[in-house]
Structures are given as structure tokens and as C-alpha cells.
Amino acid sequence: MAQDAVAPRARAPGFGQWLRAAALRVRQFELLPKSPALPPVDYNPGLIAYVAVTAFAALALATIVIVFRQDIRTALPPEAATMAVGGVTIFLMSVYAIRTTGPAAIQWAPSVFVHLGLAVTFGPAGAAVGAFAEPFGVTVRNHNGWFRTTFNVANEFLADTAAWATFALINSGSSVEGTGKVLVAGICAGVVHFALNSGFVAVVIHLSDRRVPIREVMRSRLTVLPYSIGYGFAAFAFVVITTHEGVVGFVALLAPLILLHGFLMRYTVNLKVQEEDRAAFDQEEKRLLLKAVEASEAERKRIARDLHDGVVQNLAGMALTLSAEASHLKGLDGVDGQRAELLELLETSATETRGAMKDLRTLIIDLAPPTFRREGLQGALLEVLRDMKRKGTNAEMDLPPDLRLREDRGKLIFRVAQEVLRNVAAHAEAKNVKVELITDEGSAILSIEDDGKGFSESDMERRRAEGHLGTATIVELAEDAGGTLTIDSEPGRGTLVVLTLPIE
């Protein structure tokens, strides 16, 4: 006891702990992708009448079966334990049906196999179990509501009962342990189940939305037909095994299917977790990219400010001093040859210093264009194009009048356009250049086309080798932002640059 007080011995978990652990494992399956929310039912007269007739037909058929049950000799007597196992299996498969996300969202559960097995084994009684188990499982998962659930129960009961009747009719008078007639009966039962179930669903969808033709719904459901044929092909095995082994044989037949379904559930859970991790990674990557762009922009502003407040002011002072000293020399009497050379040097130095100031101011504007902050993307691009016009290039621009872009996207588009237009002005010898920006399906598309001399791939590689990395930089910027930048050029026919960038 003293030892237990210091270091208690491990005890086997009690029933309560085991139950809580089991509940936790069950809750993990909530990670399965949910179905999209169903729209509210449009209770038009045609839809209400159709569902009411379907439900009445199912109820009438169930009543006839109950009243005349003693005349039905083609099904085994109902076994409560076996039907309970089948019903619970169908219910759970419906609750935990495998559903994928994305544009090609589908759902899968092998419950039709159990449906047909119960129906061909126990007749309408087995059909009723499946008809109630699956719709209520779907309701638990999707919150279908009473109207949809009522239709689904009637639909499943009629389809299952018709499948049983088909199986019994074709296999009438033959042993289920044969290999020919009974297989044909099972296949036909699967086809009948598919045709009725899909037909009922197609009609109800068409009545809910007249724009959806019945033929289109049936065509979309054809992918399920091979499964229904396969399930029907094997359905007679339920009769054979249940006849000889009862509920134990029934469970043994279901066991591989249940294990497969469980594996797919776990696979779907893991896949969803991976998708969430990948989405979180992409989100973090976008956040870091945005911070990098913001940091780059802040650094560009800091460099521009330091250049303006430091080097440019010093050059301005130097140019003023040189000009003042040149003026002083000019005012002296009798300027000899040596003084004339010095005067020329001072004037040349002052001119070159003012030129350096001008170049630096241009660089400062390129680094952090004040027009972009004041007037946005359109104003900044117009300023660049006006500068090109002053240098003799005819420049046109076409931007949407109601353009709305995030600031980081606008800055990136401007940086790309600025670099491309700088290259056009410096190397293309173009007479005309056109800048066009459009938005299409969530993307901004910038195109810049000139009629200059163009260049080849080898020319571009040579410029990169010489250290001109402007084009490579904007390509990298576009790709980091999730976009693409393509350059189409040949010597003698100009250049087309296209940037495609996600707006969000």
C-alpha cells in the first residue's frame, strides 16, 4: 500500500473509461466531409402529389403483403436477429457514407448490397428493414427533414420489393444453390432496383426543378448501375448462407464489406486532415508572401527616403557649391588659361552633379512612386507612360473603369509593368506600346505589347549572364504570388508580356 501511495501500479481501465474512449473514436468520424446543405423544399402541387402517391403505393403494398403473407413461399421466414444486424449495418453505412469534397463530390456506401440481400432472403419484410434503415441514416447525416425522408422510405421499399419479386419470379422452382438461373435472377434484381430507385429520384428532382430534365438525372446516375448489377449478382449468397448458417453466416458475409467500409472511412479522415494541413500551409505561405512583399515595400520606401534625405541633398549642396565657385571665377578680372580650365571643370562637374541628382530622383520614384500612393495603379501607370511619350514612344493604356484590387496585388502589377516598360524604353526601340488590364474569373490579366525589335531566348540568357536580373525577378514575383508571367518575343516582331495573377 505504501508503494502504491508513492508510485501507484497501473490498473486496467474500467468500463466507464473504455466507453469514453470508444465514444471519442466514434466522434473522430465527424471529420468525414459533410454533404452540402440541402436547399429548402419547394412544395409545389406536382411534387406534393407525386410524393403522396409514392408513399400511398408503398403503404398499400406493405398492407397487401401483411394481409396475404401466408401465400408468399419464395422467401425465408423472417429472423429478427439477422434482420436487426442487416438494418443496423445499413443505418451505420448511411450515416458514415464516404463523401468526397471538391467539384466532383460523390458519396459511396455499399448499403445497396445489404438491401438486396435482405430483400431476396426475407422478401418484403427484409425490404422494409432496408427501406427504413437507410433513409433514417441519411436523415441523421444530412438532416433531410420529414418530407424527403418520407419519399426516401417509400422509394426504397418499392425498389427493394420489386427487386425481390423479380428475383423470386425468375428463380421460381429452382434451388438457390445453383449457378445459372439464380445468378440471372440476382442480376435482374439489381437492374430493377437501380431502374426504380433512380427513376423515382429523377422524377422528384424534375418536379422540384423543372429546368432539370429526367433524362439528364438518369444519365448522371448511370455510374451507379455497375454496382447495382454486381450487388444483385452476389445477392443470392445471402439466401444460401442464411439458410445454412443463420445470423452467424449473415454476419460473416457482411464482415469483409464492413471492414472495407471502415478502412475507407479512416482513409477519408486522413485525407481530409491532409487537405486541411495543406490548406493551412498554403494560407501560411500566402501570409508570409504578403509579409515579404510588405517588408520589401517598406525597405524600398526606406531606401528612397534615405537617398532623398542624404545623397540627393549632398549632391544638391555640391552642385550649388560648384556653381557658386564657377560664378566667382567668372567674376574675376583677367582669367588666365589655368583658371579657364578650372572654370570649365567646375561647370562640367556642376552639370554632371545635377544630372546625377536627376537620375537619383528618377530612381527614388521607381523605388517608391508617390503617384501610386496618391492615385493608385492607374495614376502610376499613366505617369510611366507619359514619361515614355516624352521620349518619343506612342503609349496607350486600357484599364477597367471600376477596377478594384487589393493593395498588394496592385503594387505587384505596377512593379511588373514598370520593369517591362523600362526594358521597352531602354532596349526595344519601339514606336508603339499598349498596356491592357482585364479581370476574368477571379484573375487579373495584364498584357503589355510593343512593336520593337524583339529578342531571342539566347539574348535573354546573355542579359541574365551579364547580371541583368530584372525579367527573372518579376517572373519569380509572379510565381510566388500564385500567378504566371509569359514572354512571347522574336527578333523583328516585337514583344508580348502577359501577367496572370489571382485577384484574391
Features:
504 residues; alpha+beta; Arp2/3 complex 21 kDa subunit ARPC3; Heat Shock Protein 90; 2 domains; five-stranded mixed sheet; two-stranded antiparallel sheet; 15 helices; 8% strand
Structure write-up:
A hairpin with a 7-residue loop joins strand 1 and strand 2. The protein contains 15 helices and seven strands. A five-stranded mixed beta sheet has the order 3-4-5-7-6. It has a two-stranded antiparallel ribbon with strand order 1-2. With 504 residues, the protein is an alpha+beta fold. The longest helix has 106 residues, at 225-330. It has helices at residues 2-6, 15-28, 45-67, 80-95, 111-122, 124-142, 146-170, 181-208, 214-220, 225-330, 337-367, 370-390, 407-428, 457-465, 470-480; strands at residues 98-99, 107-108, 394-398, 432-440, 443-450, 484-489, 495-502. The relative contact order is 0.06. It has two domains: 13-285, Arp2/3 complex 21 kDa subunit ARPC3 (Orthogonal Bundle); 375-504, 2-Layer Sandwich (Heat Shock Protein 90), CATH 3.30.565.
Radius of gyration: 40 Å
The CATH class name of the largest domain reads: Mainly Alpha
Reading the helices and strands in chain order gives HHHHEEHHHHHHHHEHEEHHEE
In helices, the fraction of residues equals 55-70%
Sequence of strands across the biggest β-sheet? 3-4-5-7-6
Q: What is the percentage of strand-forming residues?
A: 5-15%
Unreliable residue runs: 1-12
Number of helices: 15
Shape: rod-shaped
How many domains, as an integer?
Answer: 2
CATH topology of the largest domain: Arp2/3 complex 21 kDa subunit ARPC3
Query: Span between N and C termini?
Result: 66 Å
CATH arch. level architecture of the largest domain: Orthogonal Bundle
What is the average per-residue confidence, as pLDDT, rounded to a whole number? 79
Structural class: alpha+beta
The profile of the biggest β sheet is: 5 strands, mixed
What is the β-strand count?
7
